[in-house]
Design brief:
about 200 residues; mainly alpha; Heme Oxygenase, Chain A; globular; Heme oxygenase; heme oxygenase (decyclizing) activity; Haem_Oase-like; Haem_Oase-like_multi-hlx
Length: about 200
């Protein structure tokens, strides 16, 4: 499963990284507030939907790796607020996770972001003269254990056999998740995301 997800989402992941341009676009506290609001606009509806999935078949916590509360804490630290209600009501364009394999794809996309965040956080802190963990809780995943979460996720996937159809479902949902995060962020960051790939 992990091999299929890595291979099947590489271009979508790179497209999103280019669109977000982190940490490059963060040059001020206002920039950081905009980025956090943009991430919240994507993360909140995705995490709500993933938490509603029945994960018992993989013995995983439905809230594994959740980081929405960290985004809100960072925004409060900056006296920022989510932009224009983007993170408020449920977005109807968020991917659906009606199959366990599709939920795996969505969780894969979100969990993987924690690994890059540990590289972004110290750069932002130095650039903005912020104490460690001040308004960078989301990037650092403060109070969480992203390495352990990733190991638990990987072990759960490896312990189950996945059909070709399920592999396709997982890859499609992961692609949709990357595209959705870019689309949710675009109005806040002022940059249109790259044209989405076809997600079969």
């Amino acid at each position: 499963m992990l091999d299929a997800l890595r291979a099947g989402t590489r271009e979508h992941h790179l497209d999103l990284e280019r669109d977000l341009d982190l940490p490059g676009r963060i040059r001020s506290r206002t920039d950081l507030s905009s980025v956090l609001s943009a991430m919240l606009a994507g993360w909140q509806p995705l995490e709500r939907r993933l938490a509603a999935v029945d994960w018992a078949g993989l013995r995983l916590d439905p809230r594994l790796g959740e980081a929405t509360d960290l985004l809100r804490a960072d925004l409060r630290a900056l006296n920022g607020e989510p932009h224009d209600g983007e993170a408020g009501p449920e977005r109807t364009d968020a991917p659906g996770f009606d199959r366990l394999a599709r939920a795996v794809g969505g969780r894969y996309a979100l969990l993987g972001s924690a690994l890059g965040g540990r590289v972004i956080a110290p750069v932002v802190e130095r650039r903005l003269d912020l104490p460690e963990g001040a308004a960078t809780r989301f990037f650092r995943r403060s109070g969480m254990a992203p390495g352990r979460d990733w190991r638990d996720f990987r072990a759960a996937l490896a312990a189950r056999d996945w059909s070709p159809t399920e592999l396709d479902q997982a890859v499609a949902a992961a692609r949709e998740t990357f595209v959705f995060v870019g689309r949710a962020a675009a109005p806040i960051l002022g940059r249109r995301p790259a044209a989405p790939h076809r997600v079969a």
